[in-house]
Structures are given as structure tokens and as C-alpha cells.
Amino acid sequence: MRPLTEEETKIFFEKLAKYIGRNIVHLIDRPDEPYCFRLQRDRVFYVSEAIMKRATCVGRDNLLSLGVCFGKFTKTLKFKLHITALEYLAQYAKYKIWVKPSGEMPFLYGNHVLKAHLGRITEDTPEHQGVVIYSMGDVPLGFGVTARSTQDCRKLDPSAICVFHQADVGEYLRDEEHLT
Amino acid sequence: MDVVAQLQTLKDKYKSTEVEKAIPVDFDLRNLVAFDTNPVDHALLRSSPDTYLKNLAREGAQLLVNQIFGLPTETAQEGVFAKLPDATTQIPRAKPIPKEKALTRWENFAKTKGIQKRKTSRMVYDEGVGDYKPRWGYKGANQTTDDWLLEVPDNADPMEDQYEKRREEKKERVEKNKKQQRRNAEEASATAAGRNPREARKAEIQKKIVESKGSTASLGRFDAQLRNEDKIKIKRGKRKFEPATVDASIEKEGAMKVAKKVLKGEDGKVLNITKAVKQVHQKGGLRNVDMEEGKKKKRRTK
């Protein structure tokens, strides 16, 4: 377990900023308790200072997980967000999309969001923007990247893709062994 | 009488070639320029700028032409030419003066020995063909491949292909020349950087050795020892990480710094005016758009 280097922090924040924009600041500067980012087995964990200090007495090989896993660095030093980060992404998301009840299951099985399933969308969402996907009852389901801007979405035919799937809560069941 | 009147009307048609100026106009005839330093009549310029400026230009041009016609002339087949004097205006260069090229090794040697370049003719007479050929290059006289017969030297291997040998030799010569060119360029760049070319080359080789030693799977641990190898020290940077537990406030500060840098790009994006106006009007940030809205409206209109 170690803190992120400056380069890693930059890559990580750049990815986060695509979803939550300026709200990164709220993750770093919390009023309740000091939180920090730690790297363990290429994974970035968001953990409170107190728990992190306790975890220092666990060996590197034995430490499986601590706090909330935000994602991991690939071997080529790119950052990939995991579904476990949804808790914080949903809280601070800049652009949101709501899917209709009919579209919830297809999305949770790992499919892209189609126009027919699009219930609501934040105004002026640009193309290729990171968005968090909610059910109509405001339950966060996952996140992805918009295929079209809000204006273009209106004109789309029902079977066209609106949002590219990146992660969904279905992964907790499907990819259980890969998530920590 | 009639003729005089006609001449007068013709004369009036054209303006006089004589122009009077309070301050005499300066000329730079080499550049075909006239400099008029007379003050501008502001009142006239205000009232009728077009005619005034046109007139001013005509006068200047007329004076310039008068001067040119006053120059000594030369007659050639194409016509009469005026001989222009030397330029009096200094015009600055657009580009800096090109730097002198560094001397090659041969040029250096020739300079110290006092060897001078001798001009040789480009074409040489080829007796076999009975015509002049370029000394070298395309269809040059030194092209040896078109000899239809080659003697085998006395002490040479009779089975050796003499054509092949020539080709090989030429290849080697070209290769050698290229090598020398490269060396000259390297030395020139080193001296231009203010370094001794010999030292620069040595340092580069040293660097290459260190690099190559570090590129094996064992990072050079099982490599064969070279001569003087222990003199070459391999220094590798160690990865340095912060300790696992840092003071929270310090860590926060570092993270904030990076975040600020990252978010700078976000702020620097071109301002979307329609979006900004909407945000101000709606006060509560961006609204959500219901996708069904449009459809319902349509139904209503039906």
C-alpha cells in the first residue's frame, strides 16, 4: 500500500473529472473525516485516514482491500474505473441519465442504453461525456459515455445507442471474482 | 493660326511634365523611388482626398520619370535602356546572414597544407564512344559496368568475377563516403555546441554502453566483461514513493494541487454561451430533459 505518485494522481483525477468535474475537490477535502487515496495491487482505494493507518500493519501480499476501490491502473498506466466507485460518482455526477423501467434489465446485463430506454437526460450533455445512469426511481445503476449529445438524442430512432455501457451494478453478480 | 490653336488644345489635354515643389524631392533611382518631404495640405486633403492624393501621386511619378529620362542611356537591340545609378537607400535584410558552414576534415587538412581547389571540366572525352561524357554521375565516364570485357590480373584468382569485384568495391567506396559525411556532421554539431568532438563521441559511446548493458533480461549481470568495463559505472534511478502514512493535511494539499492542474483544463474549455445563459436563468444549474415530452406534444397536436 502506498500513496499515488503525482503522475498517477493526475491520470486518476483526469478520469474522475470526466464524470464528476469539479466535485473531485469534495472527495479530497471532506468536512467529516480526512480521506485519502491509496494504491494497492494497482488498485486505487478511497479510504479514511484512520482505517488506512490500521491497514499499514497488514503485509502488502496479504492486504486484499481497504475502503472503497475506485478502479485500477492498467499495465500501460491508464486508469479504469470500477463499478465500486459508483457510490461516489452517483453522489457528485455532473451529467445524469435516467433509464425507463423497461431498459433497466438490458442495461444491467451489460448492454448499451438505447434511445427507446432513455427516460430523462441532463440538458446540454455533450457527446462522449461521462454520465451516471439511474433508474427512474433515482437508483444509480452504473455509468457510461454518451454516444450523442442531448439535442441529437431527440432525433434518434428508438433502436440507436444513446449511452455506451462502461460499468453496471450487475457486475457485482457477473464479475464477482474480479471485484474486490 | 489654326494650327497654333490646335496645338494649344492638344497641349491642354495633357498635364505639364514640369512639376514645381517647394522642397526638392529626393530620389533613389536604383530602387525607382521618389521621397516627397513637402508638407501635406490638410484642408485640401479633408475636402477632396481622392483627387488630392491622385494629384500628389501623379506629380511624384512625373518627377521620377523626368529623372529617369535625364539618365545616360544605352542602346541595344531590344531598345533604349537607362543606366540606373547605385542605390542610396539601405534596405534591411529580411533574413539573418547565413552562418558559415563548418569545415569538413578534408577541407581542414587542405587548408593547413595550402591545397587549393582546381577547377576541372565537367565533361571528359571518351575515346571508346568518340563523344564527351560527364566525368561522373548519370551516364558518366567513370561508370565501369558497361565495359564488355575485363582483364583478369596476373596474380588474381581466375575464377573470381571481376565485375562483381568492381561492384563490391564501388559499394564500399560509397559506404565509406557516407560514413565520413556522418562523421563530419557529428563533429560539426559538437563544435557548434562548444564541445570537443572527440570527447563528445566518447561520452556518447559510454552512454550507449550503459544503455545496452541495462537492456538484457538480467540488467547486465551475466554479460561478458568488456575491457576496461569496471571503469564504466552504471547508475540507475531508484523508484521513490512517499511513505504509506503521510500527514493528512500535507497529502490533501498535494492532491489539491494536482486536482487544480487537472481542473484547469476543464475551466479552460471554450465558453458555451447558450449553456451559460441557461444556467444563469435557471439558477439551479442544468435542467433535466424528459424524452417523452416531444412525443406527448405530437400526440396532442394530432
From TrEMBL, chain A:
<dbReference type="GO" id="GO:0000463">
    <property type="term" value="P:maturation of LSU-rRNA from tricistronic rRNA transcript (SSU-rRNA, 5.8S rRNA, LSU-rRNA)"/>
</dbReference>
<keyword id="KW-0539">Nucleus</keyword>
<dbReference type="InterPro" id="IPR016686">
    <property type="entry name" value="Ribosomal_synth_fac_NIP7"/>
</dbReference>
<dbReference type="GO" id="GO:0003723">
    <property type="term" value="F:RNA binding"/>
</dbReference>
<feature type="domain" description="PUA">
    <location>
        <begin position="95"/>
        <end position="170"/>
    </location>
</feature>
<dbReference type="GO" id="GO:0005737">
    <property type="term" value="C:cytoplasm"/>
</dbReference>
<dbReference type="GO" id="GO:0005730">
    <property type="term" value="C:nucleolus"/>
</dbReference>
<comment type="similarity">
    <text>Belongs to the NIP7 family.</text>
</comment>
<dbReference type="InterPro" id="IPR055359">
    <property type="entry name" value="Nip7_N_euk"/>
</dbReference>
<comment type="subunit">
    <text>Interacts with pre-ribosome complex.</text>
</comment>
<dbReference type="Pfam" id="PF17833">
    <property type="entry name" value="pre-PUA_NIP7"/>
</dbReference>
<dbReference type="InterPro" id="IPR040598">
    <property type="entry name" value="NIP7_N"/>
</dbReference>
<comment type="function">
    <text>Required for proper 27S pre-rRNA processing and 60S ribosome subunit assembly.</text>
</comment>
<dbReference type="InterPro" id="IPR015947">
    <property type="entry name" value="PUA-like_sf"/>
</dbReference>
<dbReference type="Pfam" id="PF03657">
    <property type="entry name" value="UPF0113"/>
</dbReference>
<dbReference type="GO" id="GO:0030687">
    <property type="term" value="C:preribosome, large subunit precursor"/>
</dbReference>
<keyword id="KW-0690">Ribosome biogenesis</keyword>
<keyword id="KW-0694">RNA-binding</keyword>
<dbReference type="InterPro" id="IPR036974">
    <property type="entry name" value="PUA_sf"/>
</dbReference>
<dbReference type="InterPro" id="IPR002478">
    <property type="entry name" value="PUA"/>
</dbReference>
<protein>
    <recommendedName>
        <fullName>60S ribosome subunit biogenesis protein NIP7</fullName>
    </recommendedName>
</protein>
<dbReference type="InterPro" id="IPR005155">
    <property type="entry name" value="UPF0113_PUA"/>
</dbReference>
Automatic annotation (TrEMBL), chain B:
<feature type="compositionally biased region" description="Basic and acidic residues">
    <location>
        <begin position="162"/>
        <end position="186"/>
    </location>
</feature>
<dbReference type="GO" id="GO:0005634">
    <property type="term" value="C:nucleus"/>
</dbReference>
<feature type="region of interest" description="Disordered">
    <location>
        <begin position="152"/>
        <end position="209"/>
    </location>
</feature>
<feature type="compositionally biased region" description="Basic and acidic residues">
    <location>
        <begin position="196"/>
        <end position="209"/>
    </location>
</feature>
<dbReference type="InterPro" id="IPR007023">
    <property type="entry name" value="Ribosom_reg"/>
</dbReference>
<keyword id="KW-0539">Nucleus</keyword>
<dbReference type="GO" id="GO:0042254">
    <property type="term" value="P:ribosome biogenesis"/>
</dbReference>
<keyword id="KW-0690">Ribosome biogenesis</keyword>
<protein>
    <recommendedName>
        <fullName>Ribosome biogenesis regulatory protein</fullName>
    </recommendedName>
</protein>
<dbReference type="Pfam" id="PF04939">
    <property type="entry name" value="RRS1"/>
</dbReference>
<comment type="function">
    <text>Involved in ribosomal large subunit assembly.</text>
</comment>
<comment type="similarity">
    <text>Belongs to the RRS1 family.</text>
</comment>
